[in-house]
């Protein structure tokens, strides 16, 4: 029985490492294809956005999370459910704006940066910008779903 449990853990670790290495190869290729880091950052955000638009359906189907009542609850679901489900981490939520409409997610252990060393000539590259795009795309789709349901 413990062998099966170990296989599941090993499989998740291998999948995580494969994703990390594949992501690194993707960023490397983007750095070769575009002349500056700003363009690479834009492409990572755009790709992440497209992933988020599609990923939200999978998240809603698999997580059985109900409707959030406020933005703080939304932040909790993102940090404690979504990041855990897809990346195996739980970021901390900090830096709430006075109006309560902005916050920061702090990743203590970002799985995307395993095995990564950025060269000095890419100091303005936002390596994990894909995650920002994923969040933006998913939240935009939730907003659209909410307005569609209320119409």
UniProtKB/TrEMBL annotation:
Pfam families assigned to the protein according to its UniProt record, in alphabetical order: TRAPP
Keywords in alphabetical order: Endoplasmic reticulum, ER-Golgi transport, Golgi apparatus, Lipoprotein, Palmitate, Transport
Domain of life, per the record? Eukaryota
InterPro entries according to UniProt: Bet3 (IPR016721), NO_sig/Golgi_transp_ligand-bd (IPR024096), TRAPP_component (IPR007194)
Gene Ontology cellular component list: endoplasmic reticulum; Golgi apparatus; TRAPP complex
Predominant location category:
endoplasmic reticulum
**Where's it found, cell-wise?**
Endoplasmic reticulum; Golgi apparatus, cis-Golgi network
KW Transmembrane helix (keyword) present: no
Q: Which SUPFAM superfamilies match?
A: Ligand-binding domain in the NO signalling and Golgi transport
Please give a single GO biological process term from the UniProt record: Golgi vesicle transport
PANTHER family reported in the protein's UniProt record: TRAFFICKING PROTEIN PARTICLE COMPLEX SUBUNIT 3
The job of this chain, per UniProt, is described as: May play a role in vesicular transport from endoplasmic reticulum to Golgi.
The record's note on quaternary structure and interaction partners says: Homodimer. Component of the multisubunit transport protein particle (TRAPP) complex, which includes at least TRAPPC2, TRAPPC2L, TRAPPC3, TRAPPC3L, TRAPPC4, TRAPPC5, TRAPPC8, TRAPPC9, TRAPPC10, TRAPPC11 and TRAPPC12. Heterodimer with TRAPPC6A. The heterodimer TRAPPC3-TRAPPC6A interacts with TRAPPC2L. Heterodimer with TRAPPC6b. The heterodimer TRAPPC6B-TRAPPC3 interacts with TRAPPC1 likely providing a core for TRAPP complex formation.
Family statement: Belongs to the TRAPP small subunits family. BET3 subfamily.
Protein known as:
Trafficking protein particle complex subunit
> What organism does the UniProt record list as the source?
Physeter macrocephalus (Sperm whale)
From which lineage does this chain's organism come? Eukaryota, Metazoa, Chordata, Craniata, Vertebrata
Gene encoding it? TRAPPC3
């Amino acid at each position: 029985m413990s062998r099966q449990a170990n296989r599941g853990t090993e499989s998740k670790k291998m999948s995580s490492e494969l994703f990390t290495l594949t992501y690194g190869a993707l960023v490397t290729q983007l750095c070769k294809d575009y002349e500056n880091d700003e363009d690479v950052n834009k492409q990572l955000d755009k790709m992440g956005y497209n992933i988020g638009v599609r990923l939200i359906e999978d998240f809603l189907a698999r997580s059985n999370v109900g409707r959030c009542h406020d933005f703080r609850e939304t932040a909790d679901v993102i940090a404690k459910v979504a990041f855990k489900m897809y990346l195996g981490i739980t970021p901390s939520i900090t830096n709430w704006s006075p109006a309560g409409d902005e916050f920061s997610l702090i990743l203590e252990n970002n799985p995307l940066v395993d095995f990564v060393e950025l060269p000095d000539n890419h100091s303005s590259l936002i390596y994990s910008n894909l995650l920002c795009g994923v969040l933006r795309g998913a939240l935009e789709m939730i907003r659209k779903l909410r307005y569609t349901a209320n119409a």
